[in-house]
Write a structure and sequence with these properties.
By secondary structure, the chain is of the alpha+beta class. It is about 30% helix and about 20% strand. Strand 3 and strand 4 form a beta hairpin.
């Protein structure tokens, strides 16, 4: 759940997670990853707290998601120019994340938001599935393996991740390709396959 509030830094968003006994906090992990990644295209984390039965992350409030903007568009798709401009910014954000040795693993239009009030900036959110693909200390890449349970959103998941191949940078980029196609066409070829 996300709520809005006003602080001395302007508007902020609250993300709540109910504590689960003997389970690690996904929200705490997400806030730690976002704090480590802080930089271009990553929302600013103001505070992470554990109160009573909840874990709470407070972050800067952003604008609408690309999915929300697409649904508001009269044509239900974006122009080629808009998609190219968005694509350049999204590639830069993913490159930044990858250079910090993380993969997002859930690239989709709901997870890219415009700035608030600066709509020229694009941000990526929801690092709940993010994972290191390489050790920052040793530079050793995660081992290649198969029969892994895929994670993310199936509509935008890469072919390898759906086959159970461990995810890496290539999968974020393949998902981004599907996302850009979706923004340009308003749908994906496999949307109506059940």
């Amino acid at each position: 759940m996300i709520f809005k509030c006003e602080s001395s830094d302007g508007l902020c968003a609250f993300k709540f997670e109910k504590k689960r006994p003997n389970k690690r906090s996904l929200l705490k992990s997400e806030s730690q990853i976002m704090e480590y990644l802080k930089g271009p295209g990553i929302p600013k984390i103001m505070l992470y707290v554990e109160e009573d039965d909840f874990n709470i992350m407070i972050m800067e409030l952003l604008g609408k998601s690309l999915e929300g903007l697409l649904k508001e568009s009269p044509e239900k798709k974006f122009s080629v120019k808009t998609v190219c401009m968005l694509g350049i910014e999204m590639v830069k954000i993913l490159e930044y994340i990858h250079n910090k040795h993380f993969i997002h693993r859930d690239v989709k239009p709901d997870n890219f938001l415009i700035g608030n009030p600066d709509i020229k900036n694009i941000y990526i959110i929801d690092f709940g599935l993010a994972k290191k693909f390489m050790s920052s200390r040793t530079g050793k890449h995660a081992k290649f393996c198969t029969n892994k349970k895929w994670s993310g959103t199936s509509r935008f998941a890469s072919a390898n991740s759906l086959r159970g191949v461990v995810q890496s940078r290539r999968d974020d980029l393949e998902s981004l390709g599907y996302l850009l196609l979706y923004l340009m066409k308003g749908s994906l070829p496999w949307d109506n396959i059940s």
